[in-house]
Task: structure prediction
Amino acid sequence: MLHVSQAGFDYEPVCFYPEITDSLRIVAGENALELACLFPSPSSVFLNQPRQVMHLTGLALAVGDTQIDNHFLNQKWSVQLKETLPNQWHGCRKIFSKIPLPMLTVDQYKKLFDLLNCPAAKKFLQHDNNITGNTIEILHELPVELRVPGVVKFIDHTKEARIIAMLCADSEAASCFLDKVRDIPSRGEFWTDATTYLIARAFEFPIGPKIDHPSIHQIVKPTDLVSFARKFRNCLKGCVGDGITGSTAYYHYAHPTEPAVIALKSRFGGNSAAIEEMKGVGNARLSDETRRIIATAFAQHGIIDASDNMFGGCYDGLYHAFFSIGRSQLDADAIDGEADTAINLIQTMFQPSAGEGA
Result:
């Protein structure tokens, strides 16, 4: 910018912009103008430098280093590093040499400078084979505890990293999250666990009826339900949402040889709640005696056992049987077999169960 005054007349300020070659524009991106000022066209003094020197120059300019000139470029790489990063230079040569061209943005260089002060981030960058601007932005968003390969490899975008950072708002939360996802094999499972962890931090299940039995207790915390899913080898992990909304309450029957998980669901038709399911380990059917104990305990609170006679549990079987019976090409024996299936299902649906009376 030049302001000229002559013979008492003030002229409008005039801007002089250096020539920016196409090569410099392609390589340097938004850094091109500043570099063209320092290394005028054709800017070959800068463009002939190794890419690690280009990136170091970009970082130096981004953090306000004014000592970038031809003399700087003519020095040995080790001297350039120590001048630019007097406190962080050790181990940085490997990092800068793995950042591809074109150059990063000014903001990304500033974030890289911050990351070089973090031992965890620096270690990650030293071992990562393809450091991009996106990698730097993701690392910068994440808490220090989560700047590790086991987390970063499952995060594709900066906003995803921001979600995890919001989820792990303090050091303790970040460490707990890392313990949960440390050995996760896939991106899908990583985000499923992240969802479970978020729910566990944010919610608890609504309190259901207290059952007057020393071995039956409600599962109140989402984390506990997920834990029971592992112990019982079933799909309870996918039921956390039902627990949070209160549409289903889950209970544990603690027994040394035949433990059970009971699902209590709101029910229309005159009953406020009913036992929808009671299952053992691996979704095994419980013995009649265990079913009787559980059903009796809930019946004392007006809660019936509908786990064996709810229409929904038999609907698919009945639908298939009726459909098969209606197919005219079936022979008599096939129709007879489907009819037996339908009869058994209907008897199961409507037979009295414990707690309802005969």
Q: What stands out?
A: The mean pLDDT is 84.
